Amino acid sequence: MTKNAEKSLEPLENPFFSHSKAINPHAFEAQKLVDSIFESTTTAGIELTLKTITALQANAEANFSQLQALLEADSPSQVVELQSAFVRKRVDASVDQIRESQALTSKVLVDVSNSFKDFFKQFLAESKAA
Asked: Which residues contact 24 (CB under 8 A, 6 or more apart)?
């Protein structure tokens, strides 16, 4: 803020402005918190997107391989056997993919909540000291 603007605010000082100035040092810490959370969630979002794309690619390759195997089957019983094995494999793969996504999401939530918890602990400790 310019010196002229600061001078024009001086007569307006009251307990609210004094209180705002006392809290103002925490604005920098709050901005760091927001930046940290944004960076964490952005990184996690990119990682989750990459995992999703990898999973979609693996699923597409498995589907094409299954189609090829079904076309090469010699009998209806072999088709049923191939299809039931394929469904089991795809369910297992889907469960693994969901677990990976859930683990990443949980990690991000823990990191973000710890950031908030640390910030508010520090804020309360400094407020009590003041």
From this structure: none
